[in-house]
Amino acid sequence: MKKILFTSLFALLSVSSIGQNCTCVLSGHIADTDTKDKLPGATILIKETKQTAVADKNGFFQVANLCPGNYSFLITHTGCDLLEITVRMDSSRQQDFKLPHHRNELAEVKVTGEKRQEIATNARSELKGIQLFQTSGQTLGESLKGVPGLNIIQKGPSISKPVIHDCIATGY
Fold first, then answer.
1. Contacts of 125 by beta carbon, 8 Å cutoff, 6+ apart
2. Which of 65, 87, 104, 161 has a 20 to 30 A CA-CA distance from 122?
3. In this predicted model, what pLDDT tens digit does every residue of 106-127 receive, in sequence order?
4. Conformation bin of residue 165: beta by default, left when phi > 0, alpha when psi is -120 to 50
5. CB–CB of 61/76 below 8 Å?
6. Are 56 and 40 in contact (CB under 8 A)?
7. Dist CA 95 CA 59 (whole Å)
8. DSSP label at 13?
9. How far is residue 19's CA from residue 17's CA, in Å, rounded to a whole number?
10. 136 pLDDT exceeds 80?
């Protein structure tokens, strides 16, 4: 009697598994949440079946031979946060997924400093007021002759080239 019951139960389980329609297909694209760029090489893992799929160069993926039911999908991509989502599969369907990038944010940064005494190379000279008025009618080179740190190279009667700190530009 036990043998007949066991055989009947085994046959019943076999028939129910054969009758199950495992032809569902999940397909779609995987993209970046912010930029909307497709993510080639993203990996999809179905926790229940251990099936994996990898997105192609266009971010497209496809997982076939799924039976109707709920599935937990783990979706990963380099530089992105892991996305875990549950999808109900009653029939084949297309579903797109968007992955957020890792957010590595720094804490507040405070920059402090102190003003040092001005160095001689930061000296500043100006022609203004009476000095500027006294040079009116002269060329720029003649007007700047008296400024400290500035030399003039004369190339003709009205052609002059100012030189700062004796650094002479070549090519003239």
1. 147, 148, 149, 150
2. 161
3. 678 888 888 777 665 556 777 7
4. left
5. no
6. yes
7. 12
8. H
9. 5
10. no
